[in-house]
Amino acid sequence: MKELTLKISEGLNITFFQGDSEEEHFLISNKELARVLDIKKPMVRTIKHRNQDKIFEGEDWTQTRIPTEQGFQQATLWTRNGAIKISQIVNSPQSKRVKKWLEQYRFVQDTEQVPIPKDIVMDLYHTLLKSNDLEPEIRQEFLEHLDKLRKFF
């Protein structure tokens, strides 16, 4: 499992663990989830406790040991779906941005593993369709690459 830091929006990054399979492609700590949602860490635990009928161990979160500067420590890690549920319950402007990013994040195996935000791909696609500034061959090549990306959505 490796640790990744990616940009959610201007001035807001997210750090999470990424494994080698679809099942473990996104795991985020309580501490990091609280930080990106701009809430206190105990609030994540409170939300988990108060919503036991909607948030499930093994599906939305798991307990595991993770490496820290002080050695290995027990931690709660949230899956992508669990982090989306917490973001939805928090329901702040920041949590809505985080939720949108989480919903658009895609795991891509055996390639550079980066999220491909749908809105950016679609914006590029429409800009290229309207643009006459590029040479036709280059414009066509860009459109073909963007068509490949659109298939992820």
Automatic annotation (TrEMBL):
Domain of life: Bacteria
Protein's name according to its UniProt entry: Bro-N domain-containing protein
Native source species: Algivirga pacifica
